[in-house]
Amino acid sequence: MSYVDEIIEAVIAKNPSEPEFHQAVKEVLNSLRPVVEANEEKFRREALLERLVEPERQIKFRVPWVNDKGQVQVNTGYRVQFNSAIGPYKGGLRLHPSVNLGIIKFLGFEQIFKNSLTGLPIGGGKGGSDFDPKGKSDREVMAFCQSFMTELCKYIGENTDVPAGDIGTGAREIGYLYGQYKRLTGLYEGVLTGKGLSYGGSLARTEATGYGLLYLTQEMLKMNGIDIAGKTAAVSGSGNVAIYAIQKAQQLGVKVLTCSDSNGWVYDPEGIDVAALKEIKEVKRARLTEYKNYRPGSEYHEGRGVWTVKVDLALPCATQNELHLEDAKALVANGVTAVAEGANMPTTLEATEYLQEQGVLFAPGKAANAGGVATSALEMSQNSERLSWTFDEVDAKLQGIMVNICHNMADAAERYGFAKNYVVGANIAGFEKVVDAMLAQGVV
Ligand code: NDP
Ligand code: 2IT
């Protein structure tokens, strides 16, 4: 059996109840076959793949807090410090009832290669909890965040592990987490990114993931002789990534026809109204059913459906495995040109393969959504030098990073004979730097 297949089998046997982690490992390792085959003897002797799929450290802890009725609640907290070969662990904190160890491991594993692709010195990590911020009061969210940080603060620091936002963790949560870290440790340091602008945050971090997604999509289309202006797009999700993806798409002359949340989706033939979306989601923390009040010409549908709309570009920006094979077939039947992942692993393996077979340009999340973590690393730089850069400076750096990632993934794919297979290209390009650092640092 090949080394890659052995490792995939071992990961499944050792972590039987973690399907998302299996999926992420399969996608990455299958892409790495040409590199692994070319270096098989050395990699086997060094147990390189065994080390790559085993987190350096996994922390799991109890998070007790008191709700507004005086009832004690208990959640589970996680931080998986996956790989620190190229820098301190870096990655978000997800707060969603679906969170379990396997989800955090899949996200942490992806983060290793994504962070490497940014070209910045950040290792891979991820954390979170099964706490659901939805429907909770600000005081309840603060109580949870303070309890969560009371344990997490023992394991993080500006030079060791720097968490940030992800699903359910936005500016409010980062503020409460930062306050508690500072109170417990006495350190005013860049231990979290996505901070508010008044206490060390970076301009353009809020926008960075969505903006970066569009910068990469624009460049990928350009490399293939296509102008992004005048295209139509379907976006899923209506959170941080989706909102700023829609905003940048519109700035680039793309008409975005859809967005969604976990209950339903909106079709707006005039193009999504970003100001309305921001008010509904960022200010009122309400549901998308409200969108119709702002835009009477739009439609709201319960359930799934954004991928049934005829568009040139599909930008999944909600969550993992939200674009299935049948969705890919519907997109292709409607003549889709490109799919670029704003979320982490939103496209199933079968759907990805189908899209690629059909000649659809496909940008994987670890390249396409790397603008968020890249700008987090820029926030770390600003914190270290105790300066703040202007919006335009950060945005220009973000653009440069996304254009670079796009060319690096395309070049790596071509070098190994997989031209235009950006999944293979992104995985190889991300892996090369990590592997070099791991081998240089010996058996650790
Ligand atoms: P938010 O919490 O701001 O928004 C998440 C959006 O996705 C909401 O509209 C939410 O709907 C929807 N959603 C979440 N879970 C589900 C689900 N199980 N089924 C259907 N819809 C769901 O998160 P972000 O925008 O920050 O994150 C979105 C994706 O992007 C995630 O995959 C995240 O890992 C990834 N990402 C985020 C980065 C960042 O900087 N924030 C960086 C790189 C990647 P509802 O409100 O109904 O729950
Ligand atoms: O998935 C991701 O890259 C993020 N949620 C952002 C991580 C970060 O450290 O900014």
Question: What's this, in brief?
Answer:
49% of the residues lie in helices and 16% in strands.
Commentary on this structure:
By secondary structure, the chain is of the alpha/beta class. Helix content is 49%, strand content 16%. The strands form 2 sheets. It has a 7-stranded mixed sheet, with helices on both faces. It has a 5-stranded mixed sheet with strand order 1-2-4-3-5. Strand 3, helix 5 (101-117) and strand 4 form a beta-alpha-beta unit. Helix 8 (205-223) packs across helix 16 (391-415) and helix 12 runs parallel beside helix 13 (349-357). The longest helix is centred in the last third of the chain and has 25 residues, at 391-415. The model has no long low-confidence stretch (mean pLDDT 98). Bound molecules: NADPH dihydro-nicotinamide-adenine-dinucleotide phosphate and (2Z)-2-iminopentanedioic acid (2IT). (2Z)-2-iminopentanedioic acid is lined by residues 90-92, 114, 164, 166, 193, 344, 372-373, 376.
